[in-house]
Amino acid sequence: MPSFTVRRGKRYRATIALGLIEQLADNGMIAAKLRDAGFEAVSVSGDGMTRSAEALWPGDDTSAPLPSQVVEVEEIKEV
């Protein structure tokens, strides 16, 4: 399982691919899971099997395995 490092004060965008039953979750439920993981200023968009999430990591730098539903994650570069 691949891992990813989040850094304090950085924003991230993730593409989330949900399974057949998981896609019944609304965006609020997905956002709540991200907040439970420690993210802030979370927004989730999309419907069905593919969602897009953006969030801020306020904690210390840390690495963790990516859940299988996260197919892509990137840091949002400030302009």
Summarize the structure.
This protein has 79 residues and is mostly beta strands. The protein has one helix and six strands.
**Uncertain runs:** none
Largest sheet, described in full? 4 strands, antiparallel
Q: Report Rg.
A: 12 Å
Mean pLDDT: 95
What order do the SSEs take from the amino end to the carboxyl end, as H and E?
A: EEHEEEE
Report the oligomer.
single chain
Number of strands: 6
What does the model show?
The model has no long low-confidence stretch (mean pLDDT 95). The protein has one domain. It has one helix and six strands; from the N terminus they run ββαββββ. It has one helix spanning 27-36; strands spanning 3-6, 10-17, 40-47, 50-57, 62-65, 70-75. With 79 residues, the protein is mainly beta.
Relevant terms:
79 residues; mainly beta; four-stranded antiparallel β-sheet; two-stranded antiparallel sheet; 1 helix; 13% helix
Would you spell out the secondary-structure blueprint of this structure?
Elements: E1 3-6, E2 10-17, H1 27-36, E3 40-47, E4 50-57, E5 62-65, E6 70-75
Antiparallel strand pairs: 1-5, 2-4, 2-6, 3-4
